[in-house]
Amino acid sequence: MSSRLRIGCSSWTSAAWWGSLYPRRLAPRERLGAYARLFDTVEVDASYYRDPGPGVVGRWGRSTPDDFLFALKFPRELLDPTRPVDRDGVAAFETHAKELGPKLGALLLQFPPSATPARARGFLHELLLSLDPAIRYAVELRDAGWFRASAREALLAELARERRALAWSYLTYLEVPAEVTGEFVYLRFIGDHTSVPAAAHGELRVDRRDVTRQWADRVRRVPDRVSPVFAFFNNHFAGFAPASANLFRAELGLPPVAYAPEARARGRQTALG
C-alpha cells in the first residue's frame, strides 16, 4: 500500500471481530499486534474518554511495526467549550502522545454537535493557539452552522492559517466540505448508531458503496503535496469496519487486506439496505 494512503479502523478492540478479523483463540492483549499485521494505521477511540497516560501509549508503540501510525482522539474533557482551555491538560496529553515517537500520525479534536459556532468559536480559537505546532491535528465539527456562509469562510481561513486539517467526516445528518486546510487529510467514515447499532456489528449491514466511491473520488483529487491521507472506518458506518475499508481500498485501486477466511466470507455478505 502507498505510504501516503493510510486506511484503517476506528479502534482495534471490537468484540464483534473475534472469529472474523481475529481468530477466536486470540488473547485480548494480542489484538493490537494482530491488527497491525493487517493495517498500517488505527484511530484510538479510548483516548477520547480518558488520557491513557505514557505507559499505555508507549506499550502500544512497542506492539506495532516501525511504519505503523496511530491517530489519537483528544480527551473530551479538554474539548468542553463551557470551560477555559486547559493548557496544562493539553500539554500533558501531547506529551503522552509523543511517547509514540514517529508512530504518532495525528491527533483528532472531536467536538460534539452541541459545540456550535456561537458556543465554541472562541474556545476553538484559543485551543488552536495552544497546540504544539509539530503535531498534526485534525478538527471535527458536527454542527452544520460551521459550514454556512461567513462561519465557513472564517473557519477554513483559521484552520489554513494554523495548518490544521478539517476532518472530512461522513455523518448521515451532516455534509462536511472536502476542503484541504492542512498539510494532510483526515477522513472518517462514521455513519450513525441508529441504522447500524452495536448489536449488529460483525457483518456488512448497509450498502454504502456509493459513499465510499464518492469519497474515493475526492481523495484522488487531493494534491500530491498533501500527505499522508488518513481514512478510518467505524463499525457504525456499515456494520463491519474491516470490510468497509476493503471496499474503499478497491475504489482506490488498492489490494484488499487479507484477513481470516471466516472474516472474508462475512465481509462479502450482501448488504441489507
The fraction of residues in strands falls at: 15-25%
Tell me, what's the shape? globular
| Strands side by side in the biggest sheet | 6-5-4-3-2-1-9-8-7
Structural class designation: alpha/beta
Number of strands: 9
**Mind telling me the CATH class?**
Alpha Beta
Any overview of this molecule?
It is a single chain. By secondary structure, the chain is α/β, with parallel strands linked by helices. It has a single domain (5-267), classed as Alpha-Beta Barrel (TIM Barrel). Helix content is 33%, strand content 16%. It is built from 9 helices and 9 strands. The chain has a 9-stranded parallel β-sheet with strand order 6-5-4-3-2-1-9-8-7. Helix 2 runs parallel beside helix 3, helix 4 (117-130) packs parallel to helix 5 (149-162) and helix 6 (209-220) crosses helix 8 (241-251). The chain starts with a strand and ends in a 6-residue tail after the last helix. Residues 262-273 have low confidence and may be disordered.
Entry summary:
By secondary structure, this protein is of the alpha/beta class. The protein contains nine helices and nine strands.
List keywords for this structure.
273 residues, alpha/beta, TIM Barrel, 9 helices
